[in-house]
Amino acid sequence: MPHTFTDTAGRIWPVQIDTTAIKRVRTLMDLDLMTFFEGELMGRLMSDTVLFVDTLYAVCKPEADARGITDEQFGQAMSGEVLQAAEEALAEGLFTISHPSRREAARTVWEKAKTLRARATELTLVRMRDPDLDRRLEEMLLTPIETGSPPPTPGSSSTSSPAPSA
Predict the structure, then answer these.
(1) Among 29, 32, 37, which residue's Cα sits nearest to residue 91?
(2) How does 18-31 read in b/e, with b if 16+ C-beta sit within 10 Å?
(3) What's the predicted TM-score (pTM) here?
(4) Alpha helices for 19-69 (secondary structure H)
(5) What is the C-alpha to C-alpha distance for residues 129 and 111, in angstroms, rounded to an integer?
């Protein structure tokens, strides 16, 4: 049974990951979903919402075609919690197609990636809420830019004409 998510228009989308879906994503997106848990692709999809939605559309394309939903319409119905649910559905589908001996490792990698993303967001918020940040930014804006040497003044040696040759 495929994993599902519901878009902002209330449509329920099955995320069926099988060899046909893997081949379709390879053809349409030039991405290999079978390498998702190796890190690079997971990172790209988790950080690039447009790439993620386009990839998910490629996975869901047969259902989208049957419903007459274009990639633009699909993308317009993807935001916020829908994206999170869609990520989970895609990961679960990939766990299902993964070799049984690799599933536990794949789940561990997925959970660690989600934890790291949440921690990075948390640290960013802490830094942005630092009461000292505004003061430090203002100091930076008021500090003159150092160029290494003062600009030349008229008549100084750097602007005078070379001595005539004899």
Answers:
(1) 37
(2) eeebbebbeeeeeb
(3) 0.66
(4) 19-29, 40-47, 49-67
(5) 27
- Distance between terminal CA atoms of the chain? 95
When pLDDT is cut at 50, 70 and 90, the band that residue 163 belongs to is low
The pLDDT tens digits of the residues spanning 91-107 come to 888 888 776 777 777 77
Contact 106, 98 (CB under 8 A): yes
- Two tokens, residue 24: 């379709």
- SS3 call for 113: helix
DSSP letter (8 states) at residue 99: -
Average pLDDT over residues 40-68: 92
Q: Which residues contact 92 (CB under 8 A, 6 or more apart)?
A: 3, 15
